Amino acid sequence: MWDYTDKVKDHFMNPRNVGDIADADAVGEVGSLACGDALKLFIKLDENKERIVDAKFQTFGCGSAIASSSALTEMIKGKTLDEALQITNQEIADFLGGLPEEKMHCSVMGQEALEVAIAKYRGGPVPTHDHGHEHEQEGEIVCKCFGLTDGFLKKVIGQNRLHTAEQVTHFTKAGGACGGCIPKIKELIAEVLGEQQKLEPKRPERLTNLRKMQLIQEVLENEVRPQLWADGGDLELIDIAGSNVQIAFRKACAGCASSSYTARFVEQKLRELVAEDISVEEVQG
Question: How far apart are CA 274 and CA 239, in angstroms?
Fold first, then answer.
């Protein structure tokens, strides 16, 4: 059974804004019943056509899909269209106190429905990743089972800093059916990671203690934990004393026989991206 937060359960059992808006200014549809998830989002603007005054949804899917859609409608009310477009799928998940990684595709679906609705309202190109809709495609189809394009997958990989094909499947469903697109997904991951590395600033030669602590936290959060999540594990930063970093493993990593190797991996990553004198110590916390 999935480990859902109380807020996910609340938005599933008591979803906000279910239904439709007869005179909606914008409507966005994503997914399909054949794929197992579908979402239709309705948006109503104020008299000046500047801010969202109402939002409703209709969805076919699991509890996470219902909760994510409910959360999205609450989040966009009162925002301008540009402000609403800044909402990421991770922010939808954070609003709910987090989602199991295997259910993150539900938050992605909400973000995409919002983008489609606003694009249709503005009369611009409408992004789609589903064969069931005759809209402009974002690049070439990679996952034929779910109609997902390389442009869409690269965007999700980059925004969520995904490192494995399994993570991409959790976030998008790509590769979750026949698996034929897994090699291409791995190529896209390598491409996106390579582009990100080119944009990342080079490590400064001298670091203040404060900056070193900030970098350590950033590397653990963005480079290490996502890889542990892929295997059902996690870690917690316990303390930083100079160049000594104390961590405690959680979930599947806690008590694992390979934890010493995982700690060594963490140490190597911190030495590579922060400072060469860093040592990592696993503690029971």
Answer: 16
Calculate the average pLDDT of the chain: 86
**What is the span of the domain harbouring residue 213?**
209-282
Give the integer Cα–Cα distance in Å for 165 and 182: 6
Neighbours of 280 (CB within 10 A): 22
Residue 188's SS3 state is helix
Residues 211 and 219: their CA atoms lie apart, in Å, by 12
Check which CATH number belongs to the domain holding 191 and give it: 1.10.10.1100
35 is catalytic: yes
Assigned token pair, 79: 């925002």
pLDDT at 199 over 80: no
**pLDDT (tens digit, 9 = 90+) per residue, 232-271?**
889 999 999 989 999 999 988 887 777 887 888 899 889 8
Token pair 């899909």: residue? 65
Instruction: Kindly name the residue from 106, 143, 181, 253 that is annotated as catalytic.
Output: 106
- Write down how long the chain is: 285
Backbone φ and ψ of 205, nearest 5°: -70, -35
In a domain, 131, yes or no: no
Q: Is pLDDT at 285 greater than 80 in this prediction?
A: no
Selected catalytic residue, list 35, 143, 181, 253: 35
What is the rounded CA–CA span in Å between residue 138 and residue 157? 15
The answer to whether 198 and 204 have CB atoms below 8 angstroms apart is no
- Residue 274 belongs to domain with CATH number: 3.30.300.130
Residue 147 pLDDT more than 70?
yes
Q: Which residues contact 261 (CB under 8 A, 6 or more apart)?
A: none
Residue 190 and residue 259 share a domain: no
Distance of CA 234 to the CA centre of its chain: 17
> Is this prediction's pTM over 0.70?
no
Total number of domains constituting the chain? 3
